[in-house]
Specification:
alpha+beta; 2 domains; six-stranded mixed beta sheet
């Protein structure tokens, strides 16, 4: 059985007070044994102010994670109100120890879009045995291509299951102050890993947009370059949008965060791709790569549907995994944008559904989670616009 401890703080400016509070909360929950790992998520100012570094020096175990725009943790530590363990200006920590597993941590050298991510990741895995599974914390998607990162880790790890997310902040682009937190330091340009070994059996679940919000008409990508879609059904991307009721003027005036391209793996398995920008030539820039011949349908996010889909998959995770110690939940930052002033509604839904099970939840700039094909085979995948759960 894995032992789980949680703590949180709102104190950004006073490093000593923040560190003392976290340590006190953990001490109240009992002695943490050897071989512990701390999973951390926080607003980026906790990195800049030195709170994260203070924790790294004070805690007797390594910490790993990344910055987020909104986060939450449960159970709520003794003496804290609910709103102090969730929101956009807090730091949360989940400590894991015990059980029949071990782990080690690692971090790459600096990475960028113009560097081969497989070359950067190779030293992480070439001297390690195959992990049971890999937890990965990446810089923002403007620094690392999500699909290429997942492909590299899967190959180099010998096909280990991969779960994790991309750092995000609360800026308009979600990319100005994104940090990966590792035992060695905080980085804007490196990928961090926790490799787990032994008897640890994670289960994965994901939701994006329900089938009832996806239109029946199917389209095919006929020209593409990485995450740039140049033509669809042999028409320009801007002409494609016009066929689904989005005029060129509408398309150029805003990023269509509520529009989803549902990419089909088979007739029952699909994953989301969102439009994150337009090129100067009016081609679509997606939140992940696509290939020529990719089949997709178009859907639209709706607040109620989005929350309903997340609620349904959370309930399913609890029902299918009877013996569980904790859950880690990542949700795409674009989902919080769509929730607007009700940005914590997804967090509150999770609290209500998940009950007493300890969980850590954070918003991410891209989500990595294994998917299951119709034939039952499992494959690692990078997504955006998704709500993903790892239950152990």
């Amino acid at each position: 059985m894995i032992n789980v401890y949680t703590a949180s703080t709102l104190e950004i400016d006073d490093v000593q007070s923040a560190v003392s509070s976290i340590c006190s909360q953990l001490n109240q929950q009992g002695k943490i044994g050897d071989g512990a790992i701390g999973l951390i998520s926080c607003q980026y100012e906790f990195v800049l102010s030195g709170v994260v570094d203070g924790l790294r020096k004070a805690l007797p175990f390594p910490i790993a994670g990344c910055s987020s725009s909104t986060m939450a943790i449960a159970p709520i530590p003794n003496g804290l109100l609910q709103n102090q363990a969730e929101g956009d200006l807090c730091l949360i920590l989940m400590v894991l120890c015990g059980g029949e597993f071990s782990f080690d941590t690692a971090v790459t050298e600096p990475v960028s879009l113009d560097k081969d991510i497989e070359v950067a990741c190779r030293p992480i895995f070439e001297n390690r045995k195959k992990p049971s599974f890999v937890w990965v914390f990446s810089p923002c998607v403007g620094t690392v291509a999500g699909d290429l990162l997942v492909e590299a880790i899967t190959k180099l790890s010998g096909g280990a299951l991969v779960f994790g997310g991309f750092s995000v902040d609360d800026s308009p682009t979600f990319q100005e102050n994104c940090f990966v937190i590792t035992p060695d330091g905080d980085y804007r340009d490196r990928v961090g890993f926790v490799c787990f070994y032994g008897d640890i059996q994670p289960s994965f679940f994901n939701a994006s947009i329900s089938k009832k919000r996806i239109f029946d008409r199917e389209f095919i990508v006929t020209e593409a370059n990485g995450n740039e879609v140049i033509s669809i059904n042999d028409k320009s991307s801007i002409e494609f949008l016009d066929t689904i009721g989005i005029t060129p003027e509408m398309a150029r005036s805003a990023i269509l965060t509520n529009l989803v391209l549902a990419i089909y793996v088979d007739e029952s398995t699909y994953y989301p791709r969102q439009i994150i920008n337009f090129s100067d030539n009016d081609t679509l820039i997606l939140g992940g790569t696509v290939e020529v011949g990719t089949r997709f349908r178009v859907g639209r996010f709706d607040k109620n549907d989005m929350l309903g889909s997340a609620q349904k998959i959370t309930q399913k995770a609890l029902e299918l995994i009877p013996k569980k110690s904790f859950a880690v939940i990542l949700s795409c930052a674009s989902r919080s944008v769509l929730l607007g002033s009700e940005s914590l509604d997804e967090v509150h839904m999770v609290r209500e559904v998940i009950g007493d099970l300890p969980f850590l939840m954070a918003y991410a700039g891209g989500e990595i989670c294994p998917l299951v094909r119709r034939d039952g085979s499992v494959f690692n995948h990078f997504q955006n616009g998704a709500f993903i759960i790892c239950v152990i």
